[in-house]
Amino acid sequence: MNKKVGPVLLFSAVVREKNQYFSSVESILRSEVKNMYKLLSHTDLDGVGCGILAKLAFGKEVKVRYNSISSLNREIESFLEQGELDTFLFITDLSPNEENEQKLNEYYGEKGNIQLIDHHKTALHLNEYEWGYVLVEDEEGYLTSATSLFYQYLVTHQLLEKTGAITEFVELVRQYDTWEWEKNENHRAHMLNALFFLMSIDEFEAKMIERLRTSEQFDFDDFEDDENESYHKNMFESDDIEGGENL
């Protein structure tokens, strides 16, 4: 499971190796019964990127909760205790502790409605579970992000239509999260993260969802360009002050 293969090829391989698992996933995701979805994700740009994709895919049928590493385990315990039988649980950009790994595996054995997607090396062992999908690097040597892997998952399962705007947004998130933007001098990725920190998560989500639903290509508006310029100017002046104090 830990071979270096791209997301599309890896999903194909998993389908072949775990036909029963993906049949159960497809039956849940495509059931005529009205299903609800829950996404537990991280609080950074990559984690929130997953939340944005989930809301684009599922709309009002998904509940998104952003967590620190420690609060994730409390959320998992709460989900398992409540026994939300008609809710499909996604976990992205975070991994549970060992105790909750076992609980999730037991729950999956009974219900089958769990999918974890991550890109951190520390989570690679979760590929041992049928509900775990962890990929650090694709077949072309590019580092992945939770947002890029979740996007691939949703598109592969025909839960979200691929568009130019969403694809560009996802790539900006990936490049920022992997620091690839520095090597590529892709300052748009840095701008996106700066914008993320200039507003609340709710405001950022709403702005990005509206833009990705209505635009053919992803871009920043004039106000955001001005805000980013002011933000970077203040950061530069702050660095100058701090540097002076440390001399």
Plain-language structure description:
The protein is of the alpha/beta class and 247 residues long. The chain has helices spanning 7-17, 19-29, 45-58, 69-82, 98-111, 146-156, 164-177, 180-184, 187-198, 201-214, 222-245; strands at 36-42, 62-67, 87-92, 114-118, 132-134. Strand 3, helix 5 and strand 4 form a beta-alpha-beta unit. The N and C termini lie far apart (51 Å). Residues 1-24 and 235-247 have low confidence and may be disordered.
In short:
The protein is built from eleven helices and five strands; from the N terminus they run ααβαβαβαββαααααα.
Major beta sheet summary: 5 strands, parallel
Mean pLDDT: 83
Radius of gyration: 19 Å
Strand order of the largest sheet: 2-1-3-4-5
Rounded to the nearest angstrom, the distance between the terminal CA atoms is 51 Å
Outline the low-pLDDT stretches.
Answer: 1-24, 235-247
Helix content: 55-70%
- How many DSSP helices? 11
What is the approximate shape?
globular
- Beta strand count: 5
Sheet/helix structural class: alpha/beta
Instruction: Please trace the helix and strand order, writing H or E for each element.
Output: HHEHEHEHEEHHHHHH
Strand content: 5-15%
